Amino acid sequence: MEGSVEEKILAGLDDEQRAVASQLSGPLCVLAGAGTGKTRAITHRIAYGVHTGVYKPQQVLAVTFTARAAAEMRTRLRDLGAQGVQARTFHAAALRQLQYFWPQAVGGTLPALVDHKAQLLAEASRRLRLSTDRATIRDLAAEIEWAKVSMLTPDTYVEAASGRVEPAGMDTTTVARVFSTYEDLKVDRNVIDFEDVLLITVGILQEDAKVAATVRAQYRHFVVDEYQDVSPLQQRLLDLWLGERDELCVVGDASQTIYSFTGATSAHLLNFTGRYQKAQVIKLVRDYRSTPQVVHLANSLLAARTAEVERRGGAGTWATPLQLIAQRPPGPAPSFTECSDDEAEATDVARRISALLDDGVPASEIAILYRTNGQSEAYEQALAAAGIGYQLRGAERFFARREVRESLLQLRAAARAAIDDDVPQLVRDVLASLGYTSEAPQSSGAVREKWESLAALVSLADELHAARSEQGFTLQDFVVELDERAAAQHAPTVQGVTLASLHSAKGLEWDAVFLVGLSEGLMPISFADTPDAVDEERRLLYVGITRARKHLALSWSTSRTPGGRASRKPSRFLDGLRPDSGGTRSFRQPTARRERKMSAPANCRSCGKVLGTGAERKIGRCGDCPANYSEETFEALRTWRLQAARETDVPAFVVFTDATLVAIAEARPDSLEKLAQLAGVGPTKLERYGESVLSVLAQGS
Predict the structure, then answer these.
(1) How far is CA 277 from CA 28, 237, 246, 269, 632, in A?
(2) What letter would DSSP give residue 590?
């Protein structure tokens, strides 16, 4: 008999993910490493709560930091049958509330929202007789955004900004004057900016008890993804949404804090258990994205910094990083390449990408990541010269492209008359009139770019049809999906090598990643002149490494131009990781012997069948085979585990899972050496609980 919907939702999750999904009430902190399936865990948690009746969909608010991530979360929840759950960015959620409550809380019409600060800042600068250019205006906008999300005013900015890098060379007093004039201009024009959306919402919730009560009655359960990136202003808004309640699940990884320049801070994540004394903490460390070779390099990068902190007795805001455990089969070793100049480096990368394409790796599964956007030009030229298509992340938005807008119009018209349920074929037929063909054109430039846009829509139709065909997926459903994605700027995958900055690559992944320009001055960037700033640069490189599933290439050049002086040095972060680089740590690939051990199948000790689940492998037998342990022994172990969990204020499964207790009860080890051989009993748990477990077993003898 098929399992219930609830059982299906939990099926396929690992032990830790399942613990996240089944912990539905109270404060929960999920420390989730890169590639560990955090989105899967929290969407299954929400869906499990909905299907078990613990949550009403309309009373759940899931908050993340990008429209794309929110759209992906909504798609996953819909596929899990949890429609009605609100998944939004902080800004989108606040704007929706502001639009609703403004008439009653303030009166009149909500001021218009300005998309960009540039025009107003340029005018503010002219009023103050300041000479500015585009770069200055950009820096001023970033500084004012930082000030506002840090909940500073022009009057409090000067003192708080002491010690910060001066934007565009302006002293803090001048910046404060520009800030003040900019705010005055907004009042004169009756407009607000994106930070105002949060600030005004916070103000209304603080001042109007009736509005606050309405919001808290609407939303009872909160989930915040990427919690290491919250700003003080976003945290204040979250506090007001919650009121005195603690129905909050946060998910984050301090090792991926890379946006401190925008006001983001991992302090809220790191201090979560201090604020919520009864909070449960679950760590997701099983990396399903990357090969052991990539994971080992990522772990080694952070371990080198941890060792440095320990030698110095602690420094900066460094937090003990999660140690990822690779779950994928072994792959190729990361490569380290030194080139004579930037042009040679770009040419070498293009050559390597061409080889990957010949080996069958799709162009959409390859990315070139760099520290600054100014580095992209050399790689654009090298790829074009090699006849390789590419897309610049952060360039023209997908849904703003002419061919995509025309496709939406054609698909809407076709949906009104469609009677065939073969959605993928219908989409192909419609887009054929706009130039889509099953084979990519040989030409490059505009023709190829147009085809890639149409091909992305076709691929999305195939993907959604496969996921939702059992629910009766129609062309109208596809059009609705496209409209929602257009509103959220959740673009489908385009066939082309991705060129992106390391910051914009956060949250994405590819089969093959090329990390380029890894020389001192670029990684870490030259203006990272404090320990905290250098730490953030290391985390940025860590984010870049963990974007790769299988192929990872790291490169740098010794000079900027051909024939130039070879004065550049490879990044200090590569010391001890790249071959022959010295340092206190050496980069060693997992040994072949260990790889064979990791990939070898486990067999049931009773019937000999290959064990299919983690729980079966832990206990060493099939779930269908009879147990051979004493119930009294098992219950004694469970009683001991409960007591140990209470003493350390952690969930019982954190001490040992049920599967591990079964394995212990069946094996009945009589020494620490024998106990250590059981799955689920690592060195840390052996040291912490080993003697107690042996004592429990001895009492039951």
Answers:
(1) 11, 21, 11, 14, 34
(2) P
Token look-up 């403004």 returns: 102
* Residue 55 and residue 47 in contact, taking contact as beta carbons nearer than 8 Å: no
| Residue 557 near residue 564 (C-beta atoms within 8 A) | no
The mean pLDDT values, 10 residues at a time, for the chain of 701 residues are 75 92 94 94 94 94 89 90 91 93 88 89 92 85 92 92 79 92 93 94 94 94 94 95 94 90 88 91 94 95 75 56 92 94 93 94 94 86 85 70 88 81 87 85 64 85 82 86 78 80 92 96 86 91 96 94 85 87 47 35 61 58 70 85 78 75 87 84 81 87 63
Q: What is the torsional sign of CA 349, 352, 356, 358?
A: positive
Parallel, antiparallel or unpaired: strands 548-557 and 325-326? unpaired
Residue 138 DSSP SS3: helix
Token output for 97: 């509330």
What tokens appear for 299 in the block? Answer: 């772990």
Partners of 281 in the β-ladder: 29
Instruction: Please tell me the total number of residues recorded for the chain in this structure.
Output: 701
Q: Indicate left, alpha or beta for 373 from its phi (over 0: left) and psi (-120 to 50: alpha).
A: alpha
> What's the pTM?
0.71
The two tokens of residue 572 are 């200090």
